[in-house]
């Protein structure tokens, strides 16, 4: 679904990574690993097409994708329901019932109509994660999706990832935690460029 | 993929921006009160002689319209940049050109359009001749559209910067100047008993050009800003 | 033809060729500046109305003319950089802005100094002066935008967008300012218009205009050379160059 | 030569102050726009030499390019 | 505990705010350029006739000072609120009164003070009589201090709100108006050949009062905003 | 060092917690536990003195404290060194060498002088965490200090916590991860109000 060849990036006078080649296939989860500042987010943004200058190498995107970054893209003034219904990602058009279901799935049942800025840090991120229950994009690019989520939430998320992989989707994520899914899991070490 | 068609998507974007602008009912009043107060500053600062005020009313109203546009242009994309919404917008399958237009339209409805609607009231406050009021409202309606579009370019180019606040004014104020000239020119012509139509035609032409070109520049600016 | 364009896109080639151009152009320009100034200051007759203060024209008008042309050079370079993604166009565009701003500043300051003895005031809101002031704002906007971006490749792209928007707008700004001025028709001050100028004054003026173009070119090349080195800091040829120039 | 004496050149019938200050300011700006890029280039090369000397032990990543 | 003494701490705060405002040397120019541009709007809007401009110059300069203060007041505490710095400031052992003063001082140095310094240049461009220039600079120097302090109160009260932008103008503009009246009054008195001293004395008294009281109000406002 | 009696809080029409009593002594680490939205952050802010209205109960603070919240309090325009040298917390006055040492301790050696907004998410948080090496406050209140930090960083942080506890300090923190320190570790369950 996603192919990248020989990616290299230099930022602030440091070579972050080089010779990264990567192929993400259906039903596969790839975890990008590296220390803080290794360049995981930078790589993900290149793969998503948000960074277009300053790197070398090719990226071919063969399937629609869903990108969830460090920032939650949740508007504090809107309610969780509005946030999902009018999302700027353009991939919306879900019915109200679907949205409520997705919010319930991320544990926000009862919070559909409060302004999002009154939510706690983890609940705020969960609003964004509800998009994983709404999107039909086959390829997911997730940047530290588990940040600020409690243990129960992490398990629920892992279940959802497994479900998506089972339906023929693919996931590329960064995380400092280990991800437990009953599916082929490969990890890309940024420091060495090795995919294992 | 459940992708929305471009018009529907832009409609939803517009709605989102308007709701964000007017989350609380009291906020519809704020911009208007702001205009009223800033306009009230002029008699206080320039001296309240009614005849001079009336002569300079077109210029004063136009300058206030321009400044309030400047003020609100800065924020068009900022909060969306900071919370990551802008990234999502760039990744959306719909063309960015139309999304940019929707953003600008929302901003215009909340500033320029409202001001144009209420300008007769302020014109009366400053003692402007009633004959010039239609020209004032029409010139504001057309001209603030250009201002919003040009302001959007400045906002898009500076939104990714850590200190955009002052910079955007530097970038767009020169481009605002022709609008100010023709806008206040239209009202002055009407005051002098001449026809305001040529000025309005020029403002209309500028608006058409801005509608056609500015969204492309905004889109380019947003891509650059998100990349930074 | 294409190979020329290809070479134009190549930093080391441009660095070398600009060096050899500057070797003769820079001394020539400096010489011409001195010669033109001496000609204008010492060897022309004074204007019959303004007396000697008119000698400011030999720097005032060339600076204004070249400053205006500089904006178009910048915008064209910006367009080339956006459309063909040519690295050197980026660099040229970035170099134009500070030079243009400096020349505009010269035009305004010398004009202002000229205005005091001629009109008895340092400043009037005349159409030409006002539009030149706006040009200064436009240049400074580009400089400020470039400086504000951390990543210089993106800064150049942003400035290219801005200068293109400016190109569309400059004619509008000029027309509108003309219109604005004629609308209000202040009677107290009038330009005489350029048509009455005497040939004995015209030739040194033309000479100085050409010289200011050469000056602009020199500064542009110098700026581009500095910028090329900084952008190519990690390449072999710059490192070798730094080694060659090792003092001692 | 239009003027008879040096003092006439300097005074220019009372307009000397204006004319000469205009030329002086122009001179300063011209020197600046020619000197500033040169200084930037020299300073950069000095920095680069220092950097090369510092990294001479470790192999610095060098990109060969046309 | 390695707690800093209050003066040292306020000095560091001031330095921090100034560095944040002027990270690069080029940024000192931005506020100045902004003033120049906004002032240039007035001839463009009101017409270039030198005599009317000269008459309006005191009012114009004062209105620009006021608007630029209004514009920048909003941001004094916003970024510190959003990134959590304000919480830390409230927890600091030093009295908040003086910290608030340091914030306002930094903002004033970057707006009011700069404008006052450059006002002679702008006054010449607008054709103001040279005799009135000292009164202009002095009134701006005193008056913008009051504006910054009052603006700080508005900023502190609204910083915790999701949409403070326009609200702050409504809160503080009424308090700005007396300053505008006495400020432009001072210049007009000087223009008319009378003494500006009584006006300046009133502005000075207002400044003293504002320095004494406003920081306390700002401190209270900040505590409320962080609590929300 | 910190005593709280019978704290109760209601927000948005929900009773978040009630009858929370708590005593934090020297050399002790207390972890506040609860799901997303349970009220951990709210409780910590009450204990720190940032929330002063709307709750019931008493808090007595007997020692100077260091509070690190969800927000990093790091200014993007300033460099890490400047951020620590001119920190608004007022508890500064460290020499340049101390600051550099602290930055090195959190793995930011070599990043002292870059603008903080160019740092990665984890590095950004690390700038703030460097204050743990500079502060001399005996009581630390930390709200999810491990967010966005890589595994090596978490271990280093745990070491620092243990060191602080060993020196007679006390730590009250919230985290969704388990904290490993060789010291008495108690946890407060917000849902039940029990301290174990
Ligand atoms: C502070 C601003 C300026 C002042 C006070 C000023 C003043 C003057 C004066 C006194 C003259 C002689 C006019 C005469 O012969 O009676 C002049 C000529 C001229 N100025 Fe300026 N000027 C200013 C700015 C500019 C700018 C910005 C431009 C460029 C667009 C410009 C272009 C010219 C040209 C082309 C002439 C010679 C043609 C002519 O004699 O009309 N000036 N200026
Ligand atoms: N705008 C920028 N300018 C210069 N350097 C940058 C910029 N953005 C990022 N960097 C550098 O790139 C490196 C990688 O950043 P990135 O955000 O990709 O790291 P990461 O692997 O996602 O780290 P984390 O685990 O902390 O999220 C960082 O060291 C940072 O200093
Ligand atoms: N300003 C507010 N108005 C109304 N309710 C609020 C407000 N702030 C927080 N709340 C509510 O208080 C609850 C607790 O929030 P808090 O931030 O304390 O949770 P938390 O335990 O820290 O969660 P997390 O693990 O996600 O950080 C949330 O459910 C939230 O909805
Ligand atoms: Mg990251
Ligand atoms: Mg929390």
TrEMBL record, chains A, F:
Domain (ABC transporter) ranges: 2-195
Organism from which the protein derives: Kineobactrum sediminis
Cross-referenced SMART domains: AAA
Annotated Gene3D superfamilies: P-loop containing nucleotide triphosphate hydrolases (3.40.50.300)
Keyword ATP-binding in record: yes
InterPro entries: AAA+_ATPase, ABC_transporter-like_ATP-bd, ABC_transptr_haem_export_CcmA, P-loop_NTPase
Keyword DNA-binding: no
Keywords: ATP-binding, Cytochrome c-type biogenesis, Membrane, Nucleotide-binding, Translocase, Transport
Pfam family, one: ABC_tran
Protein name, entry field: Heme ABC transporter ATP-binding protein CcmA
One GO term (biological process): cytochrome complex assembly
Entry GO MF terms: ATP binding; ATP hydrolysis activity; transmembrane transporter activity
TrEMBL record, chains B, E:
Domain of life: Bacteria
A molecular function (GO) term: heme transmembrane transporter activity
GO terms for biological process, alphabetical: cytochrome c biosynthetic process; cytochrome complex assembly
Pfam family, one: CcmB
Annotated coiled-coil segments of the chain: none
Keywords: Cell inner membrane, Cell membrane, Cytochrome c-type biogenesis, Membrane, Transmembrane, Transmembrane helix, Transport
A GO CC annotation given for this chain: plasma membrane
Keyword Membrane: yes
TM segment ranges: 31-46, 53-71, 100-128, 140-161, 167-187, 199-222
Keyword Ubl conjugation: no
Topology versus the membrane: Multi-pass membrane protein
Family: Belongs to the CcmB/CycW/HelB family.
Functional note: Required for the export of heme to the periplasm for the biogenesis of c-type cytochromes.
Protein name per UniProt: Heme exporter protein B
Native species: Kineobactrum sediminis
UniProtKB/TrEMBL annotation, chain C:
Gene symbol of the encoding locus: ccmC
Organism ancestry: Bacteria, Pseudomonadati, Pseudomonadota, Gammaproteobacteria, Cellvibrionales
Keyword terms, alphabetized: Cell inner membrane, Cell membrane, Cytochrome c-type biogenesis, Membrane, Transmembrane, Transmembrane helix, Transport
MF-aspect GO terms: heme binding; heme transmembrane transporter activity
Alphabetized PANTHER family for the sequence: CYTOCHROME B_B6 PROTEIN-RELATED, HEME EXPORTER PROTEIN C
Compartments in which it is found: Cell inner membrane; Membrane
Protein family (similarity comment): Belongs to the CcmC/CycZ/HelC family.
Cytoplasm as UniProt keyword: no
Function: Required for the export of heme to the periplasm for the biogenesis of c-type cytochromes.
GO BP annotations, alphabetical order: cytochrome complex assembly
Topological relation to the membrane, as annotated: Multi-pass membrane protein
Ranges annotated as spanning the membrane: 21-45, 57-84, 96-115, 127-146, 153-174, 201-222
Domain Cytochrome c assembly protein: 18-183
UniProt cross-references to InterPro entries, sorted A to Z: Cyt_c_assembly, Cyt_c_biogenesis_CcmC, Cyt_c_biogenesis_CcsA/CcmC
Gene Ontology cellular component list: plasma membrane
Listed name of the protein: Heme exporter protein C
Automatic annotation (TrEMBL), chain D:
Keyword line: Cell inner membrane, Cell membrane, Cytochrome c-type biogenesis, Membrane, Transmembrane, Transmembrane helix, Transport
Keyword Membrane assigned: yes
GO biological process, one term: cytochrome complex assembly
Pfam families, sorted: CcmD
Residues that span the membrane, as ranges: 20-37
Subcellular location: Cell inner membrane
GO (cellular component) term, any one: plasma membrane
Membrane topology category: Single-pass membrane protein
Similarity-based family: Belongs to the CcmD/CycX/HelD family.
Described function: Required for the export of heme to the periplasm for the biogenesis of c-type cytochromes.
Protein name stated in the entry: Heme exporter protein D
Gene: ccmD
């Amino acid at each position: 679904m996603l192919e990248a060849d020989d990616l290299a990036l230099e930022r602030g006078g440091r070579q972050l990574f080089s010779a990264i080649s990567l192929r993400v296939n259906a039903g596969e989860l790839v975890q990008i690993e590296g220390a803080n500042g290794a360049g995981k987010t930078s790589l993900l943004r290149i793969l998503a097409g948000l960074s277009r200058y300053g790197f070398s190498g090719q990226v071919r995107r063969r399937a629609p994708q869903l990108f969830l970054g460090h920032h939650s893209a949740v508007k504090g003034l809107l309610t969780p329901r509005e946030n999902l219904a009018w999302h700027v990602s353009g991939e919306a058009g879900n019915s109200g019932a679907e949205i409520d279901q997705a919010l319930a799935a991320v544990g926000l049942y009862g919070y559909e109509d409060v302004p999002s800025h009154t939510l706690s840090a983890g609940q705020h991120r969960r609003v964004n994660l509800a998009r994983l229950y709404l999107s039909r994009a086959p390829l997911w690019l997730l940047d530290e999706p588990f940040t600020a989520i409690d243990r129960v939430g992490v398990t629920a998320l892992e279940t959802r990832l497994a479900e998506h992989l089972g339906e023929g989707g693919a996931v590329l994520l960064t995380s400092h935690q280990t991800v437990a899914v009953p599916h082929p899991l490969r990890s890309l070490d940024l420091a060495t460029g090795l995919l294992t | 993929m459940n992708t929305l068609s471009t018009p529907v998507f832009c409609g939803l974007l517009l709605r989102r921006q308007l709701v964000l602008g007017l989350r609380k009912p009291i906020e519809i009043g704020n911009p208007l009160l702001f205009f009223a107060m800033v306009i009230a500053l002029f008699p206080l600062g320039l001296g309240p002689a009614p005849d001079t005020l009336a002569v300079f009313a077109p210029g004063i109203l136009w300058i206030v319209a321009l400044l309030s546009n400047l003020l609100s242009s800065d924020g068009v994309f900022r909060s969306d940049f900071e919370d990551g919404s802008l990234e999502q917008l760039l990744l959306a399958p719909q063309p960015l050109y139309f999304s940019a237009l929707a953003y600008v339209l929302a901003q215009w409805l909340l500033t320029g359009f409202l001001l144009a609607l209420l300008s007769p009231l302020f014109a009366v406050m400053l003692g402007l001749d009633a004959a010039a009021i239609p020209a004032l409202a029409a010139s504001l309606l057309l001209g603030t559209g250009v201002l919003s579009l040009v302001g959007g370019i400045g906002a898009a180019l500076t939104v990714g910067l850590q200190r955009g606040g002052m910079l955007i004014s530097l970038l767009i104020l020169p481009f605002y100047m022709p609008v100010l000239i023709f806008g206040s020119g239209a009202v002055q012509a009407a005051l002098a008993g001449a026809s305001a139509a040529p000025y309005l035609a020029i403002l209309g032409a500028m608006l058409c050009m801005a509608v056609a070109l500015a969204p492309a520049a905004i889109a380019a600016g947003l891509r650059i800003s998100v990349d930074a | 033809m294409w190979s020329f364009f290809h070479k134009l896109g190549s930093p080391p080639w441009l660095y070398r060729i600009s060096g050899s151009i500057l070797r003769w152009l820079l001394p020539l320009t400096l010489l011409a500046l001195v010669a033109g100034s001496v000609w204008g200051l010492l060897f022309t007759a004074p204007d019959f109305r303004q007396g000697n203060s008119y000698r400011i024209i030999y720097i005032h008008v060339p600076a204004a003319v070249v400053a205006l042309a500089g904006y178009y050079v910048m915008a064209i370079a910006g367009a080339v950089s956006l459309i063909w993604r040519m690295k050197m166009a980026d660099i040229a565009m970035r170099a134009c802005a500070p030079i243009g701003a400096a020349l505009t500043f010269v035009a305004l300051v010398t004009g202002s100094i000229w205005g005091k003895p001629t009109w008895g005031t340092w400043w009037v809101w005349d159409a030409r002066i006002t539009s030149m002031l706006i040009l200064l704002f436009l240049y400074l906007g580009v400089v400020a935008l470039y400086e504000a971006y951390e990543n210089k490749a993106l800064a150049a792209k942003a400035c290219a967008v801005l200068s293109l928007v400016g190109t569309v707008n400059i004619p509008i700004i000029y027309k509108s300012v003309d219109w604005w001025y004629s609308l209000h028709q202040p009677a107290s001050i009038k330009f005489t218009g350029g048509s009455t100028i005497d040939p004995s004054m015209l030739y040194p003026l033309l000479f100085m205009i050409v010289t200011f173009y050469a000056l602009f070119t020199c500064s542009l090349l110098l700026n581009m050379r500095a910028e090329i080195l900084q952008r190519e800091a990690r390449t072999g040829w710059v490192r070798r160059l730094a080694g060659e120039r090792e003092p001692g | 030569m239009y003027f008879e004496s040096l003092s006439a050149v300097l005074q220019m019938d009372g307009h000397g102050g204006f004319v000469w200050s205009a030329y002086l300011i122009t001179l300063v700006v011209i020197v600046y726009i020619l000197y500033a890029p040169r200084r930037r280039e020299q300073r950069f090369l000095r920095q680069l030499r220092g950097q090369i000397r510092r990294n001479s032990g470790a192999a610095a990543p060098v990109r060969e390019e046309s």
